[in-house]
Amino acid sequence: MGENVPVRCPACRRQHTFTPPVFPCACGEPLAPPLLRGAVPERITHRTWTDAWVTVRCGSCGRQDQWPQPELGCACGAVLRIPVRPVPRPAPPSAAPAAGPGTAPAAGRPSHIPLPPTATPPRPMFRPMTIRTGRDAVTAAALYLKWLGFRDIMQSPERPASGIDLRAPGLVAQVDPTTRPAGLRDVECLWLHGLSASAVSVFFSLAGYDDDARARADALDVPLFVMDLTGTPQPANRPADELITTGA
Description:
- This protein is α+β, with helices and mostly antiparallel strands.
- The chain contains four helices and 15 strands.
- The chain has a six-stranded mixed β-sheet with strand order 10-11-12-13-14-15. A three-stranded antiparallel β-sheet has the order 5-9-8, with no helix packed on it.
- The radius of gyration is 19 Å and the shape is globular.
- The model is unreliable at 99-120 (pLDDT under 50).
- Residues 90-124 are annotated as: Disordered.
């Protein structure tokens, strides 16, 4: 299961408590990348698909697979790569501990997805979708918006010239799957589309946001989310925190 570890942002020195997302192994055992406690997180300034995966071994069946590298979006706008313990050499079969009979795995969830404290009844656990392509990022954002309560979400079949990837009654959303942080113009264009449609404007980015974009989004009340490759959006500003709390 995922282990809580303290993480300090190297950019703003803000302290976080991070739990890696838990996914089922092919054998059904809940599995999370083992975090390297005490290691300094790396700020992601350039993202590539090839360096965003780590090897994880299941302690139950011994299977090794590629899993998304754990990431954390800080409130200052930095996206941090959390170091993972390397896979050790397999122990001899005789040294492997026997599994306890009748032990049921506990369900896990990413601790950084807050459930709204005033919701009645509370939302079910959000189930993310692993991102491997740009279209996966759009689909993952649509799933998250649906979890927030938006209905009848429509995806653009291809990358539209307007930049609006998702639409729903009262909603326009943009998903930036590129390796550069979203900029001021990106936020302002999205806000104008939302203004003309009398809709909430929501931005999702894999690489985070530059300082001007964050400041403008705060002034315009545009919710900003940072997505990691597990497909788990994290709020990056106050309007995003409020949207999670209130829902659609």
